[in-house]
Amino acid sequence: MLRAAALVAASVGLAMASPARAQATIEVQPLRAELDCSRLIVAYWGLWIIDECRNNFQALAARVGSAIQESGRLALSNPRGRSAPSFRLSGAMTELGVNRSGFSDSGGSAEDVSEAVGAFDFRLIDTRTGQVVLARTVTRRVEIGGVTSARGVTGYNSNDAQAVYTEIQRQIGLDVARSVAFYVDPLRLTYVEGRDIGLNYGSPLIEMGSMVQVSSGRGRAARYRVIDVTPTGAVAEAIGSELANDIGNAVNVVDDPDVQNGRRYRRVELP
């Protein structure tokens, strides 16, 4: 009952906040590839990555636009429309590589891990003033695989290159969409009740298991884990003893690359 009430409260908060922003539109401009497409590590990615690069990462642009529109705060502008969009988003893929790290010791233990790294620069322009209102570099890392040896036993794991690239796209698109949507309508609390808080955003920008940080109003920060999500709101439960105490408190999504493995359900105290 509490969870349902929280999601209703989040939905009401969104409905009250949205009308003033309902007509805001955004144009996602064609992306640029600010890297040498011919020098990408084809040995890992495959030849298809060169085509993706030379096509200026069109799939990533589509993912960014889709995530922004699904936030409900901005609509994609009609390229043939007569009115100018409220905002323009431009961006460039500046890095897409593979890093390796590892260790070995005198006891015979060793590890060699590879990860894919993608970096994306973007700028958000307010068309009414012509000013850049938001500029960031988003960097995301996804594990490719590795080799681990210990006591004479060796283990291997590896992920498909296209699956890794798709995950990098997803993470970058989600981060860019959050930045843009939260600029237009900041992430905030819709209510505080005990150890639970309601948020004015839901899926896809807020994921199950993700972590948010809230100013407690006493110079400290309280952390919460998201345990319930709908398209219009979310509920999060406190992780520690520090609690938010005001719906006016600022909220930030904590950068947690392992969110898919995070706790997703309400904590239950054992007797």
Which characteristics define this entry?
271 residues; Rossmann fold; Thrombin, subunit H; 24% helix; 5 helices; 2 domains; six-stranded antiparallel β-sheet; alpha+beta; 37% strand; seven-stranded mixed β-sheet
Overview of the structural elements:
This protein is α+β, with helices and mostly antiparallel strands. Helices cover 24% and strands 37% of the residues. Strands 1, 2, 3, 4, 5, 6 and 7 form a seven-stranded mixed sheet that branches. Strands 8-9-12-11-10-13 form a six-stranded antiparallel sheet, covered by helices on one side. Helix 4 crosses helix 5. The longest helix has 24 residues. About 6% of the residues have low confidence.
CATH topology of the largest domain: Rossmann fold
By CATH, the superfamily of the largest domain comes out as ABC-type transport auxiliary lipoprotein component
Low-confidence stretches: 8-22
Helix count, DSSP H or I runs of 4 or more residues: 5
Order of helices and strands: HEEHHHEEEEEHEEEEEE
Basic shape = flat
CATH class membership of the largest domain: Alpha Beta
Distance between the termini: 22 Å
The CATH architecture term of the largest domain is 3-Layer(aba) Sandwich
Total strand segments: 13
Please, what is the average pLDDT?
82
The chain-level structural class is: alpha+beta
Count of the separate structural domains: 2
Rg from C-alpha positions?
Answer: 21 Å
Largest sheet geometry: 7 strands, mixed
Give the oligomer, counting copies of the same chain as homo and different chains as hetero: single chain
**Helix content range:** 10-25%
